[in-house]
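Below is just one:
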Amino acid sequence: VTPAKIPYNDRAQWLVQSFKEQDRPFFDAGIRGEGQIVAVSDTGVDVNNCYCSDPDAPTPNIIPNAAHRKIIQYWDFVDDSDYQNGHGTHVSGTVLGKKSDGTG
């Protein structure tokens, strides 16, 4: 018997902000992540992934592109085998939030 999987994403908001249920001090102060720059160092990123892509801006590279919706700069320091497990894409997608179509 496989137990049902219960998503707990709704709890992550308050868990990372205060560790108290329904207490979101960052959100309450108007801090929602817009305009923030975050660095991620991991196994590489699939820049065409729905969480990373921007149909209105070229794929980022080592030259910063502030017009890109999600990734303003990308230095690919990995080899091809690093992309296979997708961990860097997973971590970056978690940081980036909504998909390129505004959902998720």
About this structure: Helices lie at 9-17, 25-28, 87-96.
